[in-house]
Amino acid sequence: MIIKPGIYRHFKGNRYEVIGIAKHSETLEDMVVYRALYGEGGLWVRPASMWLETVERDGRTYQRFTLESETNA
Questions:
Q1: For a FRET experiment, which of 48, 61, 64, 73 has its CA 20 to 30 Å from that of 5?
Q2: Residue 1 — pLDDT band, cuts 50, 70, 90?
């Protein structure tokens, strides 16, 4: 699965804007660069593998992040 720039919803409900994909300078691991769309709107990175994983909570399985709308970047 490709992580596209756009607006994503976290399984807990908050929304985030994916700016793009960067490489970790030491490991070359793909990192998602994103901004919180709430609070102070900080800029964050997270390993792409974590972005794409599923999580289990209260006996149910969720995608950690779900694309809501794609942006052209």
A1: 61
A2: low
Tokens 């006996």 locate to 59
22-54 confidence digits (pLDDT tens): 999 999 999 999 999 999 999 999 999 999 999
Sign of CA dihedral 37, 42, 47, 50: negative
Task: Give the predicted TM-score (pTM) of the model.
Answer: 0.87
Contact by Cβ (8 Å): 35, 20:
no
